[in-house]
Amino acid sequence: MDDSKPPSPSPEDQSQVVAVDRLRGLFRGLRVVSLLTLLSRILGMVRDIGMATLFGNGPIMDSFSVAFKLPNLMRRLLGEGALSTAFLPTYIREHEQNGRASSWQLVTAVLFWLMVFSTLVVAAGETLLIILSTTGNPGSEAQLLYWLSGLLLPYLILICLAAQINATLHALNHFSVPALLPTILNLFWMAGIWLIAPFFAEPHTKITVICVSILVGGVFQLLLPLLKLFRMGYRPRMNWQRGFTQVQTIAMIMAPIVVGLSITQLNTLIDSLLAWGMAQPEGVHTDTSDLSLPFWQIFESGTASALYFGQRMYQFPLGVFGVALGTVLYPRLSRHAERKEGDFLRQDLLLGLQLVLGVGLPASMGLFLMAEPLALLLFQYGDFNVFDALQTAEMIRYYGIGVFAFMAVLILNRGFYAIGDTRTPVKIGVLIVLCNLSLNLVLIWWLKGKGLALATSLSAMIQAGLSLWLIREKVGALDLSKILGTFLRSCLATILMAVIIILELQMISAADDFLYRLMRVFIPVFSAVAMYLLLARMLGLDEIMTLMRSVKKPVDKE
Questions:
Q1: Which residue in 102, 103, 487, 540 has the most C-beta neighbors within 10 A?
Q2: 296 with 302: CB under 8 angstroms?
Q3: Gap between the Cα atoms of 480 and 485, Å rounded
Q4: For residues 74 and 512, what is the distance between their CA atoms, to the nearest angstrom?
Q5: Is 279 helix (H, G, I), strand (E, B) or coil?
Q6: CA distance 405 to 48
């Protein structure tokens, strides 16, 4: 009998095993979040089709799109945005240094004070809306905006608490339930569109019903992750003095993060407010010469709605991949920073940027080329006519070209926050907001509504470039040659993919029949995806190919 012990693995083999284990965890979590996000985005598109069919592009959708942005912006800032970003490294530090019981106390304290703060914000907002509604003209578009905003404001409390619970689940390496929550909202929203709203004749009543459906969906969005957290052992524990001190610390960290993470949301909100405030009355188009109109009313009625639908479309690839990657990557970056693992942090950050380029560049080109077929297929129904669809297509096109930059900014900001640097994204962010506003004021006179979308995309590209340059001073030198190599190979594959799309769009009839509209989307999209993956394999885009398959353990050497 041979009692000899097997040889110890070499340092090189140990390094390979560690690297593969890290990749396996990252890609497993990314696949789960991406697939569930894909489901929610598909349902979101179906939901948007329903909204477009019911209301078209006009005052009702304009008012709703602006009203829904207010709680949505607060959700991204207080919930899954700045608060969660500040909370997660603090939770990881508390859990690793003081144990599970102490980390539960931190969770309880944050949830309690978040509930208090969001309730006060909603109460103040409702009071302001009541005052504004008493001063306006009954039946005006402004009155509708006040009414819808008042209905949707309580959603802020529900979704902020749900997002904070999700951040705790992310810190515990659980991603499936948080990724499922947008699907829950979409199901309730769709129920309001197709099961309840048709029973009412008045459009104002229909939009009210849909707002109530969103609130009910928000209740379930809160209950589902809370139950999961309880199953994972959470029990409310409150240390009032220490908890309040911890929340104050998180709030101080969070303040600059609000600015850094909110840049894209603020820019799109500015777009919507400009489109709403500078719109011509319904029934008047920019090609109609009407000297009685103020000089600043340059946008067609429905521009704000077109921006809303355009934002929804560019957020599809951003959510399915960019947000999913940031969600999975951020806890890893935070742990590397807490454990002083600089090499691992740089490796994961570099991998994230390579994945962004490999996925974001073809997504940007695809949206730019497929904007019109997508808008005609998805939205041209009911009150949403051809003019509305073409108007929306322009927004999709010019928001779409910035998808890769939106993704890169999201990942780079997570890198700054993981190492505790909250000031650099703020400095960049203030500059970018001013840049976006300046570009808006220049481009809208030339490009009208689509100038708003183009300004936001160009600003995101500038933001991504500045962030990449400055983060190298904080985490150490990233291998720019690898980033450049991925960029060039992905550009080549994207260009060849674009040729396929252009040729197929020319070959397929642009007839108004639904079958032809369907063919003009699905045939080029599937051909483009297949072509890009084939080219990615031929050109050695290893990051993309690894994402498409499981990461296997290396075979032990004997």
A1: 103
A2: no
A3: 8
A4: 40
A5: strand
A6: 25
**How many whole angstroms separate alpha carbon 139 and alpha carbon 129?**
15
**How many Å separate Cα 56 from the centre of its chain?**
24
Contact 402/356 with Cβ under 8 angstroms? no
Q: Three-class SS of residue 403?
A: helix
Look up residue 484 and give its two tokens: 């450049």
- Quickly count: other Cβ atoms within 10 Å of residue 247's Cβ: 22
- The owner of tokens 């009071």 is 127
76 backbone φψ class: left, alpha, beta (φ>0; ψ -120 to 50):
alpha
Q: What is the 3-state secondary structure (H, E, C) of 89-127?
A: HHHHHHHHHHCHHHHHHHHHHHHHHHHHHHHHHHHHHHH
Residue with tokens 């939770």: 91
Provide the residue type at 137 as one letter. Answer: N
One pLDDT digit (tens) per residue for the chain, 558 residues: 455 555 555 444 444 444 445 566 566 777 788 888 888 888 988 898 888 888 876 788 888 888 887 777 776 665 556 777 788 888 888 888 888 888 899 999 999 998 998 999 999 999 999 998 888 677 677 888 899 999 999 999 998 899 889 889 988 888 889 889 989 999 999 999 999 999 998 989 999 999 999 999 999 999 999 999 999 989 888 887 788 888 888 888 777 777 776 676 677 777 777 877 776 665 555 444 454 556 566 677 778 778 888 888 888 888 888 888 888 888 888 888 888 888 889 999 999 999 999 999 999 999 999 999 999 988 887 777 888 888 889 999 999 999 999 999 989 988 998 888 888 988 898 898 889 889 988 998 888 888 889 999 999 999 999 999 999 888 888 888 899 999 999 999 999 999 999 999 999 887 778 888 899 999 999 999 999 999 998 998 887 777 666 544 444 443
What are 284's strand-pairing partners? none
| Residues facing 299 on adjacent strands | 279
Q: In this structure, what token pair is assigned to residue 549?
A: 């398959």
Q: Which of 192, 190, 221, 186 is nearest to 208 (CA)?
A: 192
- Whose CA is closest to 351, among 14, 12, 27? 27
Q: How many CB atoms lie within 10 A of CB 505?
A: 17
